[in-house]
Specification:
single chain, mainly alpha, 33% helix, CCHC-type domain-containing protein
Length: 235
């Protein structure tokens, strides 16, 4: 089937869709995800019974949100801390991605799953993507970095928690549309580019981990005694 293009004006096609244009991403111009038979309403009238019978394919169900039409590697539904839970490799909700037997052993394969396939999406829970990309770019000076990057968890919580399921499905449609252009995706300003991501995460990963440790120590000294695994974790 041919995916329908989201209705986004030429003026909005910049390096990415800024946050204040979120309403355009959720507008009526973006149709919902295809139902179980893989057809949108407008398509059904153009298919005869024979074509409809032969077009049926097994439906993917997401191991995270249990919705049809996508898998965990494409999912938007986040937990309270802004991460998407489950395995981006085998689609299981029972373990994190890096604990899967199918998780690549090479850095390039891991980079593809944790970074590239999660571009303009909330990060997968588990292994932090930024140190992985830092090491990969450092060890491969010629590697391209002009691609979408995962959101910070802060951005994920801000954008997705207020949304109802119907709106989230519309966002999923736009993000997972194979014909959509990069300019049509909703990007996190903090990770809009690799340079922005390095600024957000303070350059070398050790600087970020030092900041997190200092914040944790400050909370403990303040008498909170509270360990919040999401505090400061904009991964």
């Amino acid at each position: 089937m041919a995916w329908k293009r989201p209705l986004i004006s030429r003026a909005e096609r910049s390096s990415g869709m800024p946050v204040d244009l979120l309403h355009n991403a959720l507008g009526d111009g973006i149709p919902r995800l295809a139902p179980f038979n893989g057809l949108l309403e407008d398509d059904e009238d153009m298919c005869d019974d024979a074509n409809r019978a032969t077009s049926l394919e097994p439906v993917n169900f997401c191991g995270n949100c249990n919705e049809p039409g996508h898998r965990i590697i494409q999912c938007w539904k986040i937990g309270e801390n802004g991460f998407v839970y489950g395995c981006g490799v085998c689609n299981s909700p029972e373990h994190a991605t890096e604990r899967c037997q199918g998780f690549p052993q090479d850095t390039a394969g891991r980079f593809d799953i944790l970074v590239k396939q999660r571009g303009a999406l909330p990060p997968l829970q588990g292994k932090f993507w930024y140190p992985l990309m830092w090491k990969y770019v450092r060890d491969n000076p010629g590697v391209g970095t002009n691609h979408l990057l995962p959101w910070t968890t802060e951005f994920s919580r801000t954008i997705l928690h207020p949304l109802c399921n119907e709106d989230m499905n519309r966002l999923l449609f736009a993000r997972n549309n194979p014909q959509a252009e990069r300019r049509e995706f909703l990007v996190d300003p903090a990770t809009e580019t690799w340079d922005k991501a390095k600024e957000t995460y303070l350059g070398e990963p050790k600087n970020w981990y030092r900041k997190i440790a200092e914040e944790k120590k400050a909370r403990e000294e303040a008498g909170t005694g509270k360990t919040d695994r999401t505090a400061g974790a904009r991964s």
